[in-house]
Every structure is written in structure tokens, then in C-alpha cells.
Amino acid sequence: MNPPGKQVDRRSILRLAMAGGVAIPALALAGCATGGGSDDTSSSSPAAGGEKNDKNPFGMAEKATVEAVIFNGGYGFDYVTFAADVAQKNHAGSTFSVKPSTQIAQELQPRFVGGNPPDLIDNSGANSIGLNTIADQLEDLKEVFAAKNLEGTTISDTLYPGVEAPGTINGKLVAINYVQTVYAIWYSASLFEQNGWTPPKTWDEAIALGAKAKEKGKFLMLWGKEAATYYQTLAIASAIKEGGDEVRLALENLEAKCWSKPAIQGVFKALETIVQKGYMKPGGGGTQFTAAQAQWSNDQAALLYPSGSWIENEMKKQTKEGFKMMGAPEMTLTSGSKMPYEALHSAAGEPYIVPSKAKNAAGGKELLRTMLSKEAATNFAKTKLSPTIVKDTVPEDGFGSTALQSQGKMLKDAGDNVFTWNFVDIYGTNQDMLVPWNAFLSGQIDAAKLTDQLQKITDKVANDSSVKKVEVK
Question: Which residues pair with 63 in a beta bridge?
Fold first, then answer.
């Protein structure tokens, strides 16, 4: 997941809060590592020392060793191994080591303190490191975007617009978010077609659909314990569509009583109704998140599931044949929302960082440059069924994926009405927020108590003078 992020939003649980964001065996270049983030840096090489040119824009030394630690979530880590294989061929005699991890903060914070962090890190998942806490220890990655890719084109000219924003803190590009994530309500088009259902556009329609699901012996929604904040991501997106920038900026800037905004309260009350009416499948607080997701994608016990676009790849081995996974925009509260129903929460996710004290920061940037090549980006889209920030790498047929096709349609329908937020990832609050969300979805607390507990978490950060704040305008 990305994001339990990145959102569990990548990429919190997200790359998000849904953030953000699944075990895959280590491939050849990763050796036999399964945990990642070890202290083995005995063969590290200097940060630079090589000749700078278009094929080696960061001056990586010859016969260098590059260490990358990658969050092993919804996208796995083999796509980085693919890029590492390409980079290793382009830099004969050098070694690119790719190691997976599901505990980024726990494994790598001690290495930051010790002055021996890896050269490249995918800082994603529920246990990512708050970027605001280490921003001054990271390289400014603008030179990566300014470099030429493997095909000889300036990288910045090959990317979707706005991809710098999620990784920029106080004017410094501290992270390059690699995946163009679409957040949506996911459903089985075949199941909906069989029953004559349509994806709900408002919360009232969702509640009405819950009654129809109950008649069929199904639930409207479900969740897993590590991904409870996927519903926070859904709620925030819905509230922003309803109330506009006023809602988004209040949350981003950690304002007092930001969780009490009418639009947010309206969504919380709608979710409370869904829980109280028994439309939310019980037991999620004690269910591992991919097991819960399989109840949706394989058992079809529930109709709707909020997640990022990593969901298809994450569940591809546990999805019923003929499921026809598709996404729909998040519901609005009313038909008079400030943003149209088609407005979409979408952002670059999976934040990649290069520590300044890494022994081979130049090598970390070189691996990033390779990942941003058309070859590597196309490989990611084809194998992970989700686009990267590199344009023109997904064909119209979505490589045969209905989910990928629906992402293209949602982005096209949204037009300029695309938005995101970053406060959960910036301040690393997803882990704390999982507690009240699990309690709320279980029916143990109501919307008022959920609001109170989320506000206390937010206020604690806002009132902590030791925490560097990022002002969003």
C-alpha cells in the first residue's frame, strides 16, 4: 500500500493518508535482503569524483556502490531493481543494491543519526519519516529534473505539470514523488452491471446503495486495521470538493478547529450513518489490511473501497476473475459543492529522497535519473498498472487494465480540477490517526469524538515549537 501514506497517503498508509502505501521476494540485485535498511555500508563509495557529462550528470565515481532502500508496499520494489539493472549496465563496474523495507522510519532514522544513511530512499508507507524533520539533511533534487534522461531529453520536459509541489518544502525540492497516484472509490464494474447499480455521486446516494447492498447480503464498505486512514483520505477529499480551498488550507496549516469545518463534519456524519446502519463490514479493526481488501476484491463482500491507484497491483493475486476493477471520483455532500463531482484527488506519490550525508549521493541521483527514463517508467506502468510522473508511457488500452483505463478517464474528466494535500505526510501523523479511525469505523466512538481526537493530534503538532511548519497558501 502507498501509502498506508502515502498515504497506510504513499502513500500516508497514504503515499496518504491512504497514504502511503506487500511482500515481493528480493531480486538479483537486492541479494538475499528481506528487511532492508541494514547498517551494511562497508562497500560504499564516494559521493562523487567522476567526470560530469550528459551521461553522468552528477559526477558519480567509476566502480561505485549505490545503496537504495525501497518501501515494500503496494508497488513492491522490483521496479527499482529493474532501473538498477539498467543503471548497472550503463555504469560498468558499479554495483546498485536495492533493498526492501516496510519500516522506513524505524530502520533508517538511526542511520540518519549515525551519519550513514542509504544513497536513495523511497520514504513511503505508514512508517515513513516526516520530511519536515529531515529536510535540512536532504539534497535539493532540482538538478535531477534539470538533467537529461537516458533518451537525451531534459527530464523536466517529460513530466506531468505540478509534480514538484508535493516534494517541495520552503522552496527546496527535497523529494521526487515518482508515481502519479489517483485516489478514488474503487468497485467491480461487473458486479455493478449485474445488479443495475451505479457508483454514488453523493453521500446520500452512497447510503441508499448501502441499503441495496444489505438486501443482497453484502456490505457497502469495509476496512483493515493498518488502512483505517484510507477513510480519512476519502473524507478529506470529499470535504475539499464540498467546501473548497477553505477546507484544504485549514488542514494544511494546522488551524485550530480545522476538523470542525462544516464540510468535514458533514462527511463524518455520513460515515457515522453508514457505520450505525450496519453498512460497514464489522471486524476491520482486527483484520490485516490486505486480508480485508481481499474480502472486497475476491469475496465481493462489500461494494466500495477507497484507495489509491496502487490497489489493483496490490491485490492482483487476490482479485476475482472478471472483477473489472474501476475507479470513480469521491462523493460530494451535495449537488451544490464548490468543486464538481468530477474533481479528483490526484498527486505524485512515492517520495524519493537522497540524504546529503549519503556516501554516494551522486549515485542515488543517478538511479533516480534512470527511474525517470521512458524505459523504466513504461516498465512501471505496465507491471504496476499505474502511471509514473513521466508522460506518454501508458497506451489507451491501459495494457488491458480496466482500472488503468478508468484512471485515464477520471483525469480527463477532472481537467484542471485536480487537488491534493500534504500535511499528514509532512508531519508524520498517520500512525497516530489510525487509532481514532479504527475506533470510529468499529462504532466505538462517534463523529464528535473522532473530531476531538483528530484535532488533539493536529494541535499537538501545531503547538510544538520544535516542529518546523510548512505554510501553505
Answer: none
Q: Percent of the chain having pLDDT more than 70? A: 90
Q: What is the pLDDT of residue 48?
A: 60
Q: CA angle, corner 212, sides to 407 and 229, nearest 5? A: 50
- Widest CA span in the chain: 69
Q: By C-alpha distance, which of 93, 18, 105 is closest to 63?
A: 93
Phi, psi dihedral angles at 460 (to 5 degrees)? -60, -40
Question: Cα(419)–Cα(408) distance, rounded to whole angstroms?
Answer: 16
Q: Is 113 exposed, middle or buried (0-12, 13-18, 19+ CB in 10 A)?
A: exposed
Cα 353 to Cα 139, 161, 370, 402, 435, distances in angstroms: 8, 20, 15, 32, 28
Give which of 107, 102, 105 is closest to 129, Cα–Cα.
105
Query: Average pLDDT of 171-191?
Result: 96
Separation CA 99–CA 69 (nearest Å): 5
Determine the CATH number of domain 28-180+348-393.
Answer: 3.40.190.10
- 110 in Cβ contact with 355 (< 8 Å): no
Q: Which three cell numbers stand for residue 160?
A: 506531468
pLDDT tens profile 205-218: 999 999 999 999 99
Reported as type and span, the H/E element at residue 172 is strand 172-173
Pairing label, strands 95-101, 65-71: parallel
CB 2 within 8 A of CB 352: no
Which residue shows C-alpha cell 550528459? 54
C-alpha cell at 98: 536495492
Overall average pLDDT of the 403-407 stretch: 93
Amino acid at 237: A
Cβ atoms of 420 and 347 closer than 8 Å = yes
Helices (H), 277-418: 289-297, 311-314, 361-371, 374-384, 402-414
Q: How far apart are CA 282 and CA 333, in angstroms?
A: 24
Chain segment 114-153, per-residue pLDDT in tens: 999 999 999 998 788 988 889 999 999 999 999 999 999 9
* Phi, psi (deg, nearest 5) at residue 323: -65, -40
